[in-house]
Design a protein that fits this description.
The protein is 42% helix and 18% strand. It has 289 residues and is of the alpha/beta class.
Length: 289
């Protein structure tokens, strides 16, 4: 897996476009309507995010956000007093985040299209590095965490949200239900003269045809295509032990889970996700150099 594949996927599938479509013709009013719809849906689904950000104590601190999506967290971080700089691998995310910040007249220190593997900043630049739902899509995570460690000041903090291994979504929805559905659909799809499945199941069947069903159903392969769509090139899931292994230049200070999410199970809103939530929030401090 190489970075250009990941860049191409997220350029073609920006967060939220599958629900709301792209923001019109790029006019101010188009962006305003899009961001309003996107934020309302996002924070209705994930209402824990603003309160999690409140607890970070970022006012007046130099903060780097890695991975920008539609700029929703960027706006929240700036409104909470952070001296914000953002980077994203894709031009789309950088452009849309810039449009959002300009539209809402929000100040910031910098906005760059760049890779987490090559951050364009001097050593010891930031007090905080924040990344929500991004680093689990980075295959070379050891190199990424080295770069983050490099740009953090001594005594700084890394705050990440990573997909959780010990979650209802990974253990039951992805690990059991979706694999069973694919196993049930696979022999039917091979029968001649029948309409071939379309949509998500059709895309998964095509993946299984390309890789071989047994290989595709192995969890280390299946996970890539079951977090952000069947064409997503790479995803990983984490528990605290794996965080420690993949971020060796840091110490884990705190971890908590949120967001009970396990489609097709109708579980959203039935609990806080503290036990089996899909989003693992981790706060880490860098080892002394």
């Amino acid at each position: 897996m190489i970075e250009p594949d990941i860049k191409e996927f997220w350029s073609d599938h920006p967060c939220g476009d599958n629900i709301f479509g792209a923001p019109g013709g790029g006019q101010v009013q188009d962006y305003e309507k899009f961001f309003s719809r996107y934020d309302a849906a996002k924070y209705r689904l994930e209402p824990h995010i603003p309160s999690c950000l409140d607890r970070l104590g970022i006012s007046g601190k130099r903060l780097l956000e890695i991975g920008l999506g539609q700029g929703s967290e960027a706006e929240l971080l700036i409104r909470r007093g952070a001296r914000w700089t953002g980077v994203d691998l894709t031009e789309t995310a950088v452009r849309r985040t810039g449009a959002r910040l300009a539209l809402h007249e929000l100040p910031y220190d910098g906005l760059h299209q760049a890779s987490v593997l090559h951050l364009p900043f001097p050593d010891r630049t930031f007090d905080v590095v924040f990344s929500h739902g991004v680093l689990h899509h980075v295959p070379d995570i050891h190199r990424a965490q080295q770069e983050i460690h490099r740009v953090l000041k001594p005594g700084g903090e890394l705050v990440v949200m990573l997909y959780a291994r010990w979650s209802l979504n990974y253990l039951v929805s992805i690990g059991l239900l979706r694999r069973m559905a694919l196993l049930a659909a696979h022999p039917v799809a091979r029968l001649g003269g029948l309409p071939q499945p379309k949509g998500l199941i059709g895309a998964h069947l095509e993946n299984a045809r390309r890789l071989g069903l047994a290989q595709y159903l192995r969890m280390r392969t299946f996970i890539h295509s079951n977090t952000d769509g069947p064409h997503n090139p790479y995803s990983q899931v984490y528990d605290v032990r794996r965080v420690g292994r993949d971020f060796p230049d840091f110490d884990v200070c705190h971890a908590e889970k949120h967001f009970l999410h396990a489609p097709p199970l109708p579980v959203h809103g039935l609990g806080s996700g503290k036990a089996l939530g899909w989003h693992l929030w981790v706060r880490l401090t860098p080892h002394a150099r």
